[in-house]
Write a structure and sequence with these properties.
By secondary structure, this protein is α/β, with parallel strands linked by helices. 50% of the residues lie in helices and 12% in strands. It has an eight-stranded mixed beta sheet with strand order 1-2-4-3-5-6-7-8, with helices on both faces. α1 runs antiparallel to α2.
């Protein structure tokens, strides 16, 4: 019984006295009634009632705490057959003691061309699954990795994730695969765009271990802080240090699905299975618990804007941008106008108006056509 119910019970005898007094016409009964009502109300307002209320909330807490504890330790979902196939086709190499997942497919005979794919936040190399096979028909080798903290790679915590470290991961992978002296084509998306710009900077500065670029194709990345609009949860996680541990643990599939769905077009939404595969990749190795650390890349973009945008505007590497114009994170026309104004050596493909932040998933055919036209243009 709750304290409120207890108070209602205490008042019942007074009401019965009132009825009895009226039936006999007795003034004394009415006086007793008033006394009973006053006593009951005093009891409801007494420290005893407050104590009962406090005890009730303690009981609620004792029931809820185990439920919350169970919820926060729900094991990650099982891999779907499609995601399991992707995982089984990959390998790992070690970077500074951490396991990095990658895929390396040999494709077109008679070609020596290599393409490396860099995924975005908060997903993984599986973002490229819809264009993987067509790329293997054009390139000799098609390579993609899961950055540290993403997908099937290790997700250490605590750890200071940075764009610089991710660029070093890519360089280490290229060396591991024996491609240090090979000219490579990079295709990047979102978070991967910024990693690509750091790699471009190192290449143009002739840094030790740098990649040798043949071309760079960017897509829907927040390369300009002034035209980049992160989602609310991203802002909370990157700036609220005391809230971040709670928010990362409370992030669930429903919240994730809503957030990811907002950056897809209304006619190009992922299927339920595709949403679930994205969520599974995030939850693998407790990836939800490192989101706040990884999201420091937004602050890094602002801090190192001159370095990365400068590399983009000064390079002589062939450049292309594939852009989904319905992107709320890098909105049209502000983003693409600034890009065309600052990066005048780059060519640009603007996809159909209903394509949003994930063009390689929303319009794989349009993405491939744009990319192949670019590759064949130089």
């Amino acid at each position: 019984m709750t304290p409120a119910a207890g108070c209602r019970f205490l008042l019942q005898p007074s009401r019965r006295l009132r009825l009895k007094g009226r039936a006999h016409g007795g003034v004394g009964s009415e006086g007793l009634l008033k006394t009973g009502v006053n006593i009951s109300r005093q009891e409801c307002d007494s420290p005893t009632a407050e104590l009962k209320m406090r005890e009730w909330w303690i009981h609620v807490g004792l029931i809820c705490i185990p439920l919350v504890a169970v919820y926060l330790h729900i094991p990650p979902p099982q891999l779907s057959p499609a995601l399991q196939k992707w995982h089984s086709a990959g390998e790992v190499f070690h970077f500074r003691g951490r396991k990095i997942f990658y895929r390396d497919s040999y494709g077109a005979l008679g070609s020596s061309d290599v393409v490396i794919l860099l995924h975005g936040f908060p997903t993984s190399s599986y973002d490229w699954n819809k264009i993987w096979e067509p790329l293997t028909q054009r390139f000799h080798r098609v390579i993609a990795l899961d950055f540290l903290g993403f997908g099937f790679s290790d997700k250490p915590r605590p750890h200071r994730y940075s764009i610089f470290e991710q660029a070093s991961v890519v360089e280490a992978l290229v060396a591991h695969l024996g491609l240090s002296n090979q000219r490579v084509n990079l295709v990047s998306h979102d978070y991967g765009d910024t990693v690509a710009l750091e790699l471009l900077y190192r290449s143009d500065q002739n840094r030790t271990g740098h990649l040798t670029f043949n071309s760079l194709c960017l897509s829907n990345g927040g390369i300009f802080p002034e035209t980049h609009y992160p989602r609310l949860l991203q802002m909370l996680l990157k700036d609220s240090s005391f809230l971040a541990p709670l928010l990362t643990r409370l992030t669930n599939y429903i919240i994730f699905q809503k957030g990811i769905g907002e950056v897809f077009g209304p006619y190009t939404q992922p299927t339920d299975a595709e949403f679930w595969d994205m969520w599974t990749g995030l939850r693998y190795n407790d990836g939800n618990l490192v989101l706040d650390s990884i999201l420091q890349y937004i602050n890094q973009r602002l801090k190192h804007r001159e370095r990365w945008v400068g590399a983009l505007t000064s390079t002589f590497v062939p450049l292309h941008m594939i852009y989904g114009p319905l992107d709320p994170v890098n909105p049209h026309p502000q983003f693409i106008r600034l890009y065309q104004q600052l990066v005048q050596r780059s060519t640009v493909t603007i996809l159909d108006e209903h394509i949003s932040h994930y063009p390689q998933l929303e319009d794989p055919t349009g993405f491939l056509n744009a990319y192949f036209n670019f590759i064949h243009s130089f």
